[in-house]
Amino acid sequence: MKSKHNITVLLDPIILDEAAAAAYLCRTVQWLKRTRHIDIARARKKSAPIGPTWVVLVKSIFYRPEDLRAWVAENIVVRGTVPYESPQNEGS
C-alpha cells in the first residue's frame, strides 16, 4: 500500500550508540570498546585519553556527534604528513 504522505525525516541525533558512532568514524565497535578501555586505564594514571569522549545514559554508553567531530579535528593528519625532524648530517 502506498502512503499518501511523502515525508522526509532528517535526523540530527543528540547521541549515537556504539554502532552508529563506529560507523560515523569508519571504525569498528570493537575499536571503540578497546579505546574506551585504554582511556579508563589512562585516566587512572592521570594521562590524556586517546579516544573520543563518551557519555553514560541509563547505564548505556553513547557518543555525542560534536565530541566525535572534535576528536577527528584533533587527531586528523592532513595528507598523511607527520611531524618530522631531518636527521643531522653525519660525517660532515
Structural write-up:
- The chain has helices at residues 18-25, 29-44, 65-75; strands spanning 55-57, 60-62.
- It has a domain at 18-75.
- It has a two-stranded antiparallel ribbon.
- Helix 1 crosses helix 2 (29-44).
- The longest helix has 16 residues, at 29-44.
- Strand 1 and strand 2 form a beta hairpin.
- By secondary structure, it is mostly helical.
- Helices cover 38% and strands 7% of the residues.
- The model has no long low-confidence stretch (mean pLDDT 84).
- The chain is built from three helices and two strands.
Q: What is the radius of gyration computed over CA atoms, rounded to a whole number of angstroms?
A: 20 Å
- In what order do the strands lie side by side in the largest sheet? 1-2
* Tally of separate helices: 3
Helix share, percent: 25-40%
Most strands sheet = 2 strands, antiparallel
| Cα end-to-end separation | 82 Å
Structural class, by secondary structure, is mainly alpha
Can you give the mean pLDDT? 84
Spatial shape: globular
Uncertain ranges: none
What pattern of helices and strands is seen along the backbone? HHEEH
Strand content: 5-15%
What is the count of β-strands? 2
